[in-house]
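Researcher: We're teaching a course module on how sequence relates to structure. For the next exercise, students receive a sequence and then see the predicted structure as tokens, so they can try to spot secondary structure elements on their own. Here is the exercise chain.
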Amino acid sequence: MTTPDTGVRVEPGSFRDPANRVFYADGQVLRGLDARAAEDWRALAASEFFPPLLAAGKVCGTEPVAPDRFRAPDGGPWAAVLRHERIPFVSHPYEWSFGMLRDAALLHLEVLRAALAAGFTTKDGSAYNLQWHGARPVFIDVGSFEPARDGEPWAGYRQFCQTLLYPLLLTAHLGVDFQPWLRAQVDGIPPEQMRRLFTGTRRLLPGVPTHVHLHSAMQQRHAAATTSDVRAQLRTAGYSRQLALATVRRIEKLVRRLAPRHAPSHWIDYQRTCTYSAGDRAAKERFVTAALTAGPPPGLVLDLGANDGRYARIAARHAGYVVAVEQDPVVVDELYAALRAEDQRRVLPLVMDLADPSPGGGWRGVERAPFATRARADLVLALAVVHHLAIGRNVPLAQVVDQLAAACAPGGRLVVEFVHPEDPMTRRLLANRPPGLFGDYRPDEFARLLATRCRIERRAELPSGTRTLYQAVVGG
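Model: And here is the predicted structure for the students to work with:
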């Protein structure tokens, strides 16, 4: 949505808190505040806890700017305007691995704990309040901070449970991937649904009695009560900021102890079990490096089918930022753990099925932008992925090429690997398929299709003789 100010675009996902709205102008990420929110911001900026969080990069960089030229959606002036640092790539919690969601939850609790100790709290507890600098989470919802009032509970507790704690409990206790659940419900998993999953002895699993069953029962009990009624009851019962801090510490302790209960994944050992020879791997790395250094350094690289991140790491040496996409949550979790240990700030791993990428979601389908809208890269790596889409998922070869080309910004480069029908990996995929079903899956047909959408700059056969690499310019 564009406001009357030329070039000012309101963030579609920023409407739930009318006191502050995120918008974009002149390439900047800005936040407009009303009078109450501006007062809270001034108190926050003067506090002792907030500047250290900013300095440590745990809260996104924020500074005030002159509000005069920007207008609120109702046409009136903002009381204050903040400028935020730009996040390199905006992702959604249903694209994160278990370890990523757990670390995001822990940062949220750390920020809240520091705020409570200083007399502040956060209005929200949503996983969408966090983003990433590579493998490091960052809290972005500066407009969520407000002074804490004794006798009032943490307003974000329900959101925290539904978008962070409950998804973690699903994977830790039941071995269920949380990503489809979060993708299906923008507000997260309600306690009523969780309660039905944790019956019998499952009721006693860590975190479940208090944060699932008791939470669900309390919500049902107070369903007809107003927020002010609940606050009054808590004040009467002696609820205090110290009790709120103790609750946060207990949740933090619970989250730290949660570990994923993943089913084994055959993709974990892909680099050991795949058919690449040492010569193939070396030739492929040289080809990818040459593509990355062929022109100006790419700002954004997409590595589609990243697996263990070998080529994402190579790309990070030459690019501004790399988004490494992999379908298997277990593989992404392994990659994230490795990147986190390396303190890698330029590679963001994401869980994504390329045959079913994240659609638009939330209010009017635009509150959470689809992956295709967010991911227009200067260079796309699609290495050993075409055969999985064309044969493994029955996507017509022409549409596979269309999809890969569409992931590039105009004039961007595409580095794609075609695995021939006689390659052992392709033969394995074809083994249980009807004969003749994939007759157009041929090197010459792939090259023809690629040439209709791109200008092929160079190609190379790997030493094995069953794989071909292409470097092409989209729209060239």
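Model: If you want an answer key for the exercise: The CA atoms of residues 145 and 295 lie 44 Å apart. Residues 98-117 form the longest helix (20 residues).
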